[in-house]
Amino acid sequence: MPQPILPSGLSDHLDAAEANLIAQGVVHPARVIKHVVNGEHERLLGNAPKTGQEGGEDEVVTTWQLEAKELSKNSIPLVITLALQYSLTLASVFSAGNLGSNELAAVSLAGMTANITGYAIYQGLATALDTLCAQAYGSGNKHMVGVHFQRMAVFLMVLTVPISIVWMYSEEILKTIIPEDELSRLAGLYLRILVMGAPGYALFECGKRYTQAQGLFMASTIVLLICAPLNAFLNYTLVWHPTIGMGFAGAPTAVVIIDYLMPLLLFLYVRFVAGSECWGGFSKRAFTNWWPMIQLALPGLVMVEAEYLAFEVLTLMASYFSTAHVAAQAIVAQAGSVMYQIPFALSIAASTRVGTFVGGMSPNAAKITSSTSLVMSVVIGTFNGGLLLSTRFLIPQCFTDDSHVIAIAAAAMPIVGFFQIFDSISAVAAGVLRGQGRQYVGSYTNLVTYYVAALPWSWYSGFVLGWEVKGLWSGMAMALAIIAFVEVLVVLLTNWQRVVGEARARESWA
Questions:
Q1: What pTM was estimated for this model as a whole?
Q2: What end-to-end distance do the CA atoms of the chain give, in Å?
Q3: Which of 157, 235, 396, 504 has CA atoms 20 to 30 A from the CA of 16?
Q4: Which residues cross the membrane (predicted)?
Q5: Are 102 and 183 contacting, i.e. CB atoms less than 8 angstroms apart?
């Protein structure tokens, strides 16, 4: 990447950390000036003059080839990270699910409830850090990365209280909407144990974004390379071991242990390996000025929650067919979720890269990154779809030997394979929007598309037309196609100078 040239006399005002950012070509020196006195006027950080045009001399210069290389390089450890993190849940499905069809359905139901009432809330609100931390790092205001992390962590700890109450009484809640009491009982047991690990999960979600904003994508990968095998061992030991095994209750117990081990190992990585430069110590600012952060976080919550809830409603609908249909629905959902980890990894890489360029006042570089990532998403989506179609009978056999469940899942798999390209595009476009700080676009789009178009069609085709699980997923295919089109259109029509201006304004309240 061509390096920006320091204007005459400017280097005298830079410290070592600021000079290092410039040397890496991440930001233009104008973004890391602490102050430059010119007569009686003082230009503060972030207010140095610009050329006023994209691709001007004060921007980082990049190309689509370079961005494709950087996005690919950053996505690889993220794919591993997401796959390993997803394996934590998958291990529970395998270990408890193999106890019987009821247990498999109960794990799916418990996972659905945990996603809707807890995990989606943590993940959705934490998307604000995709914007705040990346833009703060790109601007050279490194310690604000740590402050943003602390604010979000404290905020999520407060929200853990109502989430815990819901999980503790989940059995009673589920009995009002699930026709089979045994499923509600087992799912409620799972969640009452799982609630103990909620704070650890929330801290890890914040910690991932803290490290990713600094380009430390391997940090969470290393943590999960340790935790994932341990989780598999714990699932076997706590579920199946003839002496200390607890049966069904062992699966969520394993998750709780790992939920606390992950943030602990990530802390040790930051402390002793890399990432501490953005930690300015514990700050009282973590307990103040929450509302601007919440204003950015709430659209992220709506965006993630709307999607989570829409997909999990399919499980509720499937429960009105039979337990076999719930099990088949769980298998199809797991397969789609595994494939989603690849474009989602690219989404995170694109979000971080765009946010860093926006924070560094380089709109043209951010624009090139966005376009490159969208093209890459099409390639990934095509690959994912072909893989699911070619393994539609093999995948269900990995979860169960029930021929009826396998037949139901295999029949729905082609539809899931078909919409992989739309799922991939929408995931990456949403990542670009997070990097811009425009999560609200995805929140409005998801809310309207899923609940006005997709779910009504899923119900009609599943129950009225008699397509059952295939019909349920046809609605999701429709939704993702619409969401992909809208979000890509918004990204392509972005006024990048305005996005940079919004990022600069955001610094004033930080």
A1: 0.81
A2: 30
A3: 504
A4: 152-169, 216-238, 244-269, 290-311, 331-352, 373-395, 407-433, 440-460, 472-496
A5: yes
55 within some domain:
no
Is residue 457 located within the same domain as residue 492?
yes
What are the φ and ψ backbone dihedral angles of 37, each rounded to 5 degrees?
A: -85, 125
Residue 132 and residue 17 in one domain: no
Give domain status of residue 126, yes or no.
yes
Domain of residue 22: give its range: 10-44
Looking at the fold, whether 19 and 99 belong to one and the same domain comes out as no
Q: Which of 122-126, 307-311, 329-333 is most confident?
A: 122-126
Has residue 213 got a pLDDT over 70? yes
Per the structure, how many domains does the chain have? 2
d(CA 335, CA 422) in angstroms, rounded, equals 16
- The verdict on residue 331 lying in a domain is yes
- Closest-CA residue to 217 (of 384, 356, 109): 356
Question: How far apart are alpha carbons 129 and 85 in whole angstroms?
Answer: 19
Confidence of residue 510 (pLDDT cuts 50, 70, 90): low
Q: Which of 263, 224, 206 is nearest to 91 (CA)?
A: 224
Q: Output the six-digit token pair for 103.
A: 């247990």
